[in-house]
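In this section we walk through a basic example: taking a raw amino acid sequence and producing a predicted 3D structure, encoded as discrete structure tokens. The instruction is simple. Fold the sequence below.
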Amino acid sequence: MYNGLRGWKKRIVDKSLSGLAGTIVLGPSLKYMFEDLVPDEKIFVCENGVEDEIFATEEEIKQKIERYKIDDTIRIVYLSNLLESKGILDLFEAVTIVGGQGKKIHLDVAGAIELAIEDRVKAYLEELGDTVTYHGVVEGKKKKELLLNNYIFCLPSKHPYGEGQPISILEAMANGCAIVTTDHGGIGDIVNEEYGVFVEKRRPRSIANCFEELDCETKMIKGWFEASQKYRKDQFVSRIERVLLERSIES
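The resulting token sequence is shown next.
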């Protein structure tokens, strides 16, 4: 956006940026957005945080692991707006592939549907039948319920403007989901192979293979532990407070 500015608009933005005490980004890979605009020492990283009411308890995670051990169904959840650029159609196709091979699989989907692909989404929902459940837009207890009931969270994003730090991934970790996603934008700042798997963009077969081969138990535990250690709301607030305090002292 900045590169497209000209004349007085650019001068206003430049003056505003020159007066900043600092700027905050959600992950190290996002610092590039302010390169050549703000001095590096004024760019601070503050990872996001998950609301306390969304976080699963240790007991809830133990119960989830026990269910996983005896469940013969691959259970996946997608929580985001249903945009083609977020990979929802690739995910539907991956579920179609797995189901076509005789494997038991179920997908829970929640979020607003992009108007441009509404017909294609409805066609997949009809074709997949009981294999997929669409929940509309969900919040609070319903969101936590979906995350606790599923073992894999999938966001195969290929968004042209990149990804910041999807709160949905952190919420999934906070509820013991193994993460299947793409190494896109700031996602790599919060996902690693201990609790996640990176799949190829625009490749439903890559997603399907991951679903079939993924052993979730260890990743579910490690993801929840990582979120507990780094991504709680109070930890996010502390990170913000620390940056603000440092800038106040230096000023």
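Looking at the output, two observations stand out. The beta strands are 23-25, 43-45, 74-79, 105-110, 132-134, 152-155, 178-181, 196-198. The chain is about 45% helix and 15% strand. In the next section we compare this with other chains.
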